[in-house]
Amino acid sequence: MEIVSSNCASLSNYEVFEHLQKVKDCRPKHKGQLATITYETLRYLENTPCKEQTAQSIKECIRELAPFKLHKTELLMIINNPPITPLEIQFIVEESEERLTEDQVQEILAIIAKHFPHVIKTPPDEDEQSE
């Protein structure tokens, strides 16, 4: 096999999920390795934030994050695993202390919460904590 373009594009989990759903729905039942890989990957992705994302929410989020001059890989990580705390932003954004102010980090978190509200985890009720 010849590799024509070794790094043509990076796909988000959402794009992979959507593509595998189409593969699963359009083709007759697969047998063997392709069926196993498709099934296992879909099973994994169903438990990630990408299941609740939409193409529109991703596009709008990326557009609103543009002023922060994040690298493509950083944007991809934010889309695949949306951070909910400033600490998570530090793990994702290279040299975040130099590139982003605390206010900018809060703005980024607000943008993420706006476009991906399903990832914001609410703290458990006090009743649940005491059990």
UniProtKB/TrEMBL annotation:
Membrane topology: Peripheral membrane protein
RNA polymerase Rpb4/RPC9 core domain: residues covered: 1-119
Coiled-coil boundaries: none
InterPro entries hit by this protein: HRDC-like_sf, RNA_pol_Rpb4/RPC9_core, Rpb4/RPC9, Rpb4/RPC9_sf, RPC9
Single Gene Ontology BP annotation: transcription initiation at RNA polymerase III promoter
Domain of life: Eukaryota
GO molecular function, one term: nucleotide binding
Pfam families: RNA_pol_Rpb4 (PF03874)
Compartments where found: Cell membrane; Nucleus
Gene3D superfamilies assigned: 1.20.1250.40
Keywords, comma-separated and alphabetical: Cell membrane, DNA-directed RNA polymerase, Membrane, Nucleus, Transcription
Cellular component terms (Gene Ontology): plasma membrane; RNA polymerase III complex
Oligomer and partners: Component of the RNA polymerase III complex consisting of 17 subunits: a ten-subunit horseshoe-shaped catalytic core composed of POLR3A/RPC1, POLR3B/RPC2, POLR1C/RPAC1, POLR1D/RPAC2, POLR3K/RPC10, POLR2E/RPABC1, POLR2F/RPABC2, POLR2H/RPABC3, POLR2K/RPABC4 and POLR2L/RPABC5; a mobile stalk composed of two subunits POLR3H/RPC8 and CRCP/RPC9, protruding from the core and functioning primarily in transcription initiation; and additional subunits homologous to general transcription factors of the RNA polymerase II machinery, POLR3C/RPC3-POLR3F/RPC6-POLR3G/RPC7 heterotrimer required for transcription initiation and POLR3D/RPC4-POLR3E/RPC5 heterodimer involved in both transcription initiation and termination.
Family recorded in the similarity comment: Belongs to the eukaryotic RPC9 RNA polymerase subunit family.
Stated role: DNA-dependent RNA polymerase catalyzes the transcription of DNA into RNA using the four ribonucleoside triphosphates as substrates. Specific peripheric component of RNA polymerase III (Pol III) which synthesizes small non-coding RNAs including 5S rRNA, snRNAs, tRNAs and miRNAs from at least 500 distinct genomic loci. With POLR3H/RPC8 forms a mobile stalk that protrudes from Pol III core and functions primarily in transcription initiation. Pol III plays a key role in sensing and limiting infection by intracellular bacteria and DNA viruses. Accessory protein for the calcitonin gene-related peptide (CGRP) receptor. It modulates CGRP responsiveness in a variety of tissues.
Stated name of the protein: DNA-directed RNA polymerase III subunit RPC9
